[in-house]
Write a structure and sequence with these properties.
Protein-Tyrosine Phosphatase, Chain A; five-stranded mixed sheet; 8 helices; 5 strands; globular
Length: about 160
Amino acid sequence: MDAENTHQVFDWLWTSGQLSGKDIACLPALGVEAVINLALPTASNALFGEAEFITRQGIAYIHIPVVWERPELHQLEQFFSILKAFEGRNVWVHCAKNMRVSAFIYLYRKLCLAESEEIAVHPMQEVWVPNETWQTFIHRALSARSNTAFERDAPEAARPSI
């Protein structure tokens, strides 16, 4: 894969930086049924026509443009809902460099799967150390763990305990 910071998190979930056209052509062989893009369409390395390239492969394309300086909890909730909707299917999640994505995956692993810190931190710890903006966002999300939106979307056995 050309995409930087590519990680297979589970047998059904991959994360990376921006996909190339060549990467997109490889997705069907991996059985990927959905691509979630968290980058802005104005990112310096955005792939023009990405949605069309992906959907032509028969793959669902979901875009949640997360502003780097202002990640929002409602976007995280939307992300959780999309992963739930594609449960049992192979999913690829990317942004410009896998920084936004790795933070969202960390929170998914903590809040929806109730994984330990040691496990949940992968692949975020391999990609980056979140800056102050993202540390604040992560803290807000973890503090909101009693929020019914997080609990509603989590599988019964994986709901965070308060």
